[in-house]
Amino acid sequence: MKFLRQAKNKHGVHSPFVYKLVTECFNDRQQKLDYRILRQHKKALKKDKTLLEVTDFGAGSRIFTSNKRMVKAIAKRAGIPKKRQRLLYRMVTYFHPKTILELGTSLGKSTLAMALAAPGSTINTVEGCPETAKTAAAYFKEFDMENINIHNQPFQEFLQQYSEETIDFAFIDGGHDKDQTLDIFQELVNKTHNDSVFIFDDIYWSREMTAAWKEIIGHPSVTVSIDTYQWGIVFFRKEQQKQHFTIRL
Hints:
The chain is an alpha/beta fold. The protein is built from ten helices and ten strands. α7 links the parallel β4 and β5.
């Protein structure tokens, strides 16, 4: 309710950068040819009765009570929903990133969206659970996604050896733990440049996650931040004064 009271649409945004992002990207309702591939991928996952033994490295799941889960159940009840998947696709298309990092592959629905949106770019995606990573990789191969590198490692282990000097676009969807989220941010903030974009998923998952989000937007390097309730998006544009926006999607 507090979010809804504070949230604005494009008419309440007085930043040219954010207004353009909202009108040209967030509010883009045109159908894209690649949406058909996203539908096919989701349909294939929802038919898959393979039973996985899922290893959780973060706060765990609020949906599943067992670590043995069918692929179809995970696809139906967890992971990025269609509306957010399409928004992620549009954001990658809008910003044209070359280096893309994803922490939390799951079954690869968000990964596939970014790979389709940036066919000339490389996506490094990290999934801690071996069986989930194996399943995602198999579907990437089935859908001929050659610009995805999947890494089956805990996040911190991967980040300690991550060699990219800069990150254009990062989608952080895993852990759901305050300390882990802040540790990830501290690791990645040193790889940002003026046009870097970071998206943090589930910023209202818990009081701790919301506290982590507030610390992130208070960081001196963050100049523009957008709270969409599900996602927290941060930018590092030095030419702008520090501003925070709450946007209804």
